[in-house]
Amino acid sequence: MYLIFISSLNENVKLANRIKNKLEESNKEVEIINLVHLNLPMYDTIKEQNDGIPQAALELAEKMKKAKGYIFVSPEYNFNVPPVLVNFIAWISRIGENFRALFSLKTIQLATHSGSNGKDFMNSTRNQFTKLGAIVAPREIITTYSLGIEEDELKTIIDEYIYIGK
């Protein structure tokens, strides 16, 4: 099972669906999770102490434990990572004794549809996921309003991502 996490609506949802189709063409089981729809409260330690970990985050953590890998499809907001993704990582890293547990040795593919080139998002998330112990695929999926990605190139990147996780 592969989990595709989306950090926005619109164009990134379309890109996530294209990625999902490529994985399914390779006979992989896939689930798309839109982090916007999870509606997690903004993380802070006081909220965690008072209310505990949100049930949605706990349920998602169970899926993450069973997943072979993750694909993060996200725009670049103000040359960085969207708040909904940062917030998701904050909550998920609080589950269990080891904050790296749900990322350690998981393969991650990064993808973006951004108004700019998305490189700042890619660099920031690559750095964070690597420090969380994940294996981040070397090639990135980048589309903009003026630059798409051809189906054969997308297939090659997804095939390489699957191979890394073997």
How does this structure look, described?
Strands 1, 2, 3, 4, 5 and 6 form a six-stranded parallel β-sheet that branches. The longest helix has 15 residues, at 11-25. With 166 residues, the chain is of the alpha/beta class. It has helices at 11-25, 35-38, 45-51, 55-66, 83-92, 119-131, 151-164, and strands at residues 2-6, 30-34, 69-73, 107-113, 135-136, 141-143.
- Low-pLDDT runs: none
Number of strands: 6
The termini sit apart by 13 Å
Structural class assignment: alpha/beta
Percentage of residues in helical conformation = 40-55%
Largest sheet: 6 strands, parallel
Shape: globular
Helix-strand pattern, N to C? EHEHHHEHEHEEH
Continuous helix count: 7
Mean pLDDT: 95
Gyration radius (Cα, Å) is 15 Å
Work out the strand percent.
Answer: 15-25%
Give a short overview:
By secondary structure, the chain is an alpha/beta fold. Helix content is about 45%, strand content about 15%. Strands 1, 2, 3, 4, 5 and 6 form a six-stranded parallel beta sheet that branches.
